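Sorry to interrupt, but I need a hand with the structure work. Could you write out one complete protein record for me, on any chain you like? Just paste the record in under my message, thanks.

. . .
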Amino acid sequence: MNYSHEHLEIQKTLQRFITEEINPHVDEWEQAEMFPAHQVFKRLGELGLLGLTKPEEYGGAGLDYSYSVAMAEALGHIECGGVPMAIGVQTDMATPALARFGSEELKREFLVPAIAGTAVSCIGVSEPGAGSDVSGIKSRARKDGDDYVITGQKMWITNSLQADWMCMLVNTGEGSVHKNKSLVIVPMRENGKLRPGIEVARKIRKIGMNSSDTGLIYFDEVRVPQRYRIGAEGQGFIYQMQQFQEERLWAAASCLQSLTNCIQWTIDWAQERKLFGAALADQQWVQFKLAEMKTEVEALRALTYRACDLYVQGQDVMELASMAKLKAGRLNRLVPDTCLQFWGGMGYTWENKVSRMFRDGRLASIGGGADEVMLGILAKLMGIAKRPARPE
């Protein structure tokens, strides 16, 4: 996959916006443990960056998925992990199924403002007792006339303290855990206030990704029209699994630039830092480790680009996307940790950009499917692990 002039121009536009309107505020947002999502998303919408792959009739650009990868990569110029993650939730996690399977009415009501940046969305899959095991969710929607009445909990939900609506995976029937779930759009607020029955039980404080708000949300008899269901009833698990391919490609692409920056920051530091009468960068061990890490990042880039290229061609890339997600998680742990060591005491300070990457990057091996889940998928696709019988 090669970036065209159009890809590069989108990246330049985004990088300019990041330099002028994001990075000057990152320290403030990190300290506040929240960034102004409505303000930032509105500006991204005005720049046409929230719907690159969405249909033009809803305000999108109608481009292929390689443009989403290009955007995810450029978001790595943001000097924290929380803001890029929140943007990715809006563009590549909460809206893909809506754009593909939602009714015309649903897309007009929810997709259009999400693309314009006038509404903030979140994706409600994980629960206190079901994270990587999506099939184990307990939230339930019973039918009452033309409505669903939803009760349950959603946890680890990015953007949820500011979101206008949630794309929620919820049990809408009985039987097989893979065939009894639906994706439902749940409006979270009316006139800026939480709707009756929706409670932010608590804001979750994390060791990293501090500028991104994360909540535990309770739903108690929340009424939603059945017409807010995305696609067919009982197909939610399938839709979510399809959506995961894009989410995992996005996760891999989003760390390419930030990892590259982390290495370059460390090179610059090592060339200035004096140690026993010479620059730290003169130490062969330092040189070799930086070169090795740069090679690993470029290998991840090649894998991610190849997976994206095949995906754009219409191929199933579950295997390659899972590999890329796995490798991205591992490198998000290895690279900042190694670089932090070279920074010495300065690397152990809270404000240091490398230490922030060390904290933020740890999530990559957990969120969106833990490393062990990626390995399990790969083992099954390779034919070396038996597929367990699906519980009914």
User: Anything to note?
Assistant: The chain has 13 helices and twelve strands. Residues 43 and 117 are 7 Å apart (CA to CA).
